[in-house]
Amino acid sequence: MILTDEIRAQEAQGLTYQTAGVNIDAGEELVRRIKPMVRKTFDERVLTDIGGFGGLFDARFPGMTAPVLVSSTDGVGTKIKVAIEANRHDTVGEDLVNHCVNDILVCGARPLFFLDYFACGKLDVEIGESIISGFVRGCQNNGCALIGGETAEMPGMYAENDYDLAGTIVGVVERDRMFRREAVAEGDILIGLPSSGLHTNGYSLARRALLSQYTIDSKPELLGGLTIADALLKVHRSYLKPIMHLIETFQPGRDIHALSHITGGGIVGNTSRVLQEGLDLAIDWNAWQRPAIFRLIQDAGMVPEDDMRRTFNLGIGLILLVPPSTATAVEQSLRSCGEEPVRMGAVVRK
Question: Domains in the chain and their CATH numbers?
């Protein structure tokens, strides 16, 4: 840490936690500000308030015969660098909630509660409050409680203006209503649901490609009036509502065999995770139109097509693997709730 004259003068009077770079008062002020909005995510099953040592949640599940808890932990990656450069911090928290919701959704689970971790080099209360507002909005939209979290100010670990986020989600699913990779079979149809953009993956490549030619505020013609920041900070979609709509009508594991959340590794890398030995994917890469941001990245960085496919979702954020007998009905049901499903390939024998 580089010592300023002010810090040296303070240290001459003796070290404190604040002169070492940690402002306890700022942390307490952040907690004071976020309590009212975080409480908006609570329901009658939350048995504690913000500020305790642990979040308490009523674990009774009336009406469920064999409830299975499903959990996941993730981060936002270097999308945070875009938020910092654009000075727009109110979306990355929502990104993280939605990402985690989708991860447990592919098991058929609905979210119960979420916990966040926010680490920074120097705590800016305004930025912290903006980030937490995104967590709150994500939790409210997905019907889960923001039951707790941690704010860590760590000078020396992070640069003064840098921060990082992580989140953990817990959900529940009835054992006999789970999607199961064991059900996936040759001939299953791949039905894709559109993404809102990059979601939360591939930003190291995207930033390297785009910011070598553009600034964060540039408006390339291909983006139709959006800035680079607008396109890169589009919120990672939650697919909870359309998938829960399907679960009300169809039997997971029978009518819909499995789901794949398209994150790091792209369409093939993620969907292959639900395939049995001996099965493969036949994907029609021309079945949908890629959002303009992916074409801009590929052109700006001269990124090979294979690398685009391994890095990005390319406009498809979730894939359903369904037997041919129910594929049309599933597509119709998705359209009835405002989705635009894409029939994009099939499961084949290697």
Answer: 5-176 (3.30.1330.10), 181-349 (3.90.650.10)
The pLDDT value recorded for residue 70 is 97
Tokens coding 110: 């609905």
Q: Is the pTM of this model over 0.90?
A: yes
pLDDT digit string (tens) for 203-217?
999 999 999 999 999
